[in-house]
Design goal:
The complex is a heterodimer of chains A (243) and B (346).
Chain A lengths: L4 E10 L2 E11 L4 E6 L5 H9 L5 E6 L2 E2 L5 H7 L1 E4 L11 H8 L5 H14 L1 H5 L10 H14 L4 E5 L7 H16 L3 E6 L2 H7 L2 E6 L2 E7 H6 L1 H7 L11
Parallel strand pairs in A: 3-8, 3-9, 6-7, 7-8
Antiparallel strand pairs in A: 1-2, 1-4, 4-5, 9-10
Helix pairs in contact in A: 3-6, 4-6
Chain B lengths: L2 H32 L6 H16 L6 H19 L6 H26 L5 H24 L7 H23 L13 E4 L2 E4 H23 L1 H11 L1 H6 L4 H23 L9 H15 L5 H21 L4 H7 L1 H11 L9
Antiparallel strand pairs in B: 1-2
Helix pairs in contact in B: 1-7, 1-8, 1-10, 1-11, 1-12, 2-5, 2-6, 2-10, 2-11, 3-4, 3-5, 4-5, 5-10, 7-8, 8-10, 11-12, 12-13
Classes of the chains: A alpha/beta (243), B mainly alpha (346).
Chain lengths: 243, 346
């Protein structure tokens, strides 16, 4: 079966500075793929370009269709969803309105069922459904951002640093939900600085350094790689002095 | 000053203030959704008013032809954008809204103008014509610039204003016009006389404000418009097209403008360039509302109307000066209260 998303030889530049160089990536159905790497490696830039927020040189195909001439809104309608790092919620509107708008491109009759599914995944959102999005806690805002993206019934959900700035207990919750998403047929592209947690749930992984993929493979193999362990997982391998 | 005069001025001020409130709300809406400061709002007022007055007088208004011309322009833009990926459905839809619709309206206008139509038909035609002009102007002048800075959009806005004002002179001449009253009844309560026209102004203003409130609070498209205003990227990620939001905002603004014009023109003689000053007063209210707050804008508009009425009694030569001076303390206060904000990029 062909890949759900395939990126071939992608370059993304801010003016003259190339933030992403010659990157290729594939995501299959029902797969969690993670991109790990340090701050500034180009992970967010790559996600933005796949979504159509930034211009990309190279080829991006989703569900067999070339995305080159499609706007962000068309990509959303095709089933590509992005939860950006800054969440981009409608802060002066309540939780329910935020979710309802997430289903803007979906038939009204289906939207109702979608909302029930989101409330089952995130019961906290149901409790807070009349509260303004801007008054939610960080973790709740992350749940709302994910919920809003899920309302659009994406086939692939791209998550940018979903655990950033959240309490460990909420992070665990969010990672559990990501695995539930895979079980329900949604593929996930996960960008994380918390490499340990991301590699634990992912099927495939890519390691990004200075705009390039330096390593890729099965997530379990990447997690076992010494260099990755030293750079991103906070482990010291044998032979290096520990204080 | 006795109480009668005061009440009279107050009534006058509230009537004008109600109109400024509508215009101010439209300005806030358009700015919030598209970041365009809509200088041509005043032209929507004059176009609505003078189209209505011309039709009522049995003359053919040039605005109907302008709508068709702009529609052709808008269709050309759509074709140009779609040149590489021809979606038949999109092109047919564009053809229907940009060419067929204004052509039908033009035919109807030619037909009715020859036989002095009833007031209701004049109003309906004027509203539709100006609404189309607003919609096509967005497509031609603002949609291609949607990603640029507020300043570029403002320059485009000034350009559109100047062009429309010139065309207004061409269509309606330099002479002022008045239109027939929508309601010609009147009654007195105490020393105050309420004309059918002023009652119409209050009723329509209140109905429109309630209607807008319901639209924004309850409907999906209303919420989508608010969402675009709150967070453009967030709205796009939810699949809401900023162009759709822009179209709705411009449609509402042009209808509100035209409606205001139709309500004023039976009370005051309007010239091709009168709209600018009327629009500016709505703008003063919108600025007092910080270009974001609808309730504050509505209240400020009433204050503007009342200040205008009283200053035209006490110092009629300075009435405009006094109204626009209201801005200075407001801006001073705002600049002290809020830190400097850099323009948001998206």
């Amino acid at each position: 079966m062909s890949a759900l998303l395939s990126v071939t030889d992608a370059h993304v530049a801010y003016g003259k500075v190339e933030a992403v160089r010659s990157v290729s990536l594939e995501i299959g159905q029902n797969e969690i793929v993670t991109i790990v790497g340090a701050n500034g490696a180009g992970k967010t830039t790559l996600l933005s370009a796949i979504m159509g927020i930034l211009p990309l040189k190279g080829r991006v195909a989703f569900a067999g269709q070339d995305l080159a001439r499609l706007d962000i809104e068309d990509r959303v309608a095709m089933g590509l969803g992005l939860v950006p790092e800054h969440r981009e919620l409608f802060v002066t509107m309540n939780v329910e309105d935020n979710l309802e708008l997430g289903a803007f491109r979906i038939e009204r009759s289906k939207a109702k069922a979608s909302m029930e599914r989101v409330y089952t995944l995130f019961p906290r959102l149901k409790e807070r459904r009349k509260q303004l999005a801007g008054t939610l806690s960080g973790g709740e805002q992350q749940m709302l951002a994910m919920g809003r993206a899920l309302m659009g019934e994406p086939k692939l959900l791209m998550l940018d640093e979903p655990s950033l700035g959240l309490a460990p207990i909420i992070v665990a919750d969010i990672f559990r939900i990501i695995t539930e998403l895979r079980a329900s047929g949604v593929s996930v592209l996960l960008v994380e600085q918390n490499a340990q947690a991301a590699l634990k749930i992912a099927d495939q992984a890519y390691v990004m350094e200075l705009g390039e993929f330096v390593l890729s493979g099965k997530a379990s193999d990447i997690a076992a790689n010494e260099r990755v362990a030293a750079s991103y997982l906070g482990f010291q391998h044998e032979g290096t002095g520990v204080l | 000053m006795n109480t009668t005069i005061m009440l009279f001025l107050l009534q006058d001020g509230i009537t004008n203030g109600a109109i400024y409130a509508l215009l101010g709300l439209a300005l806030v809406l358009v700015f919030a959704v598209t970041r365009v400061i809509l200088i041509p709002q005043g032209e929507f007022v004059t176009y609505g008013a003078l189209t209505y007055a011309s039709l009522a007088a049995g003359q053919m208004p040039g605005t109907a032809k302008l709508a068709l011309a702009l529609g052709i322009g808008a269709f050309a833009f759509d074709l140009f954008v779609a040149r590489k990926a021809m979606h038949t459905r999109l092109i047919v839809r564009s053809f229907l809204t940009n060419i067929v619709l204004p052509a039908i309206v033009l035919a109807l206008t030619i037909y009715f103008a020859a036989q002095k139509p009833p007031v209701a038909i004049c109003i309906a035609l004027s509203l539709v014509i100006v609404a189309m002009i607003g919609l096509y102007l967005y497509r031609i002048a603002f949609q291609p610039l949607a990603h640029t800075s507020v300043l570029v959009l403002l320059i485009a806005s000034v350009g559109v204003h100047l062009a429309l004002q010139g065309l207004g002179l061409l269509f309606f001449g330099a002479e002022g016009q008045r239109g027939p009253a929508v309601l010609s009844t009147a009654f007195t309560a105490g020393s105050l006389r309420f004309t059918g026209q002023s009652i119409t102004v209050y009723a329509i203003t209140i109905a429109f404000i309630v209607g807008l409130w319901l639209f924004f609070g309850l409907t999906l498209y209303g919420k989508a418009l608010r969402a675009t205003a709150v967070n453009r990227l967030g709205a796009r990620l939810a699949g809401i097209r900023t162009t759709l939001s822009g179209q709705i905002a411009f449609l509402l603004a042009s209808v509100i403008g035209a409606l205001s014009g139709i309500m004023i023109v039976p009370i005051t003689t309007l010239y091709y360039d009168s709209g600018f000053l009327i629009g500016l007063k709505g703008f003063v209210a919108a600025i007092i509302g910080g270009l974001v707050s609808y309730p504050l804008t509505a209240v400020a508009a009433l204050v503007v109307g009342i200040v205008e009425a009283f200053s035209s009694f006490y110092a009629s030569n300075y009435k405009e000066v006094i109204v626009f001076m209201l801005l200075i303390p407001v801006l001073l206060l705002r600049s002290l209260a809020a830190p400097a904000v850099e323009e948001e990029k998206d």
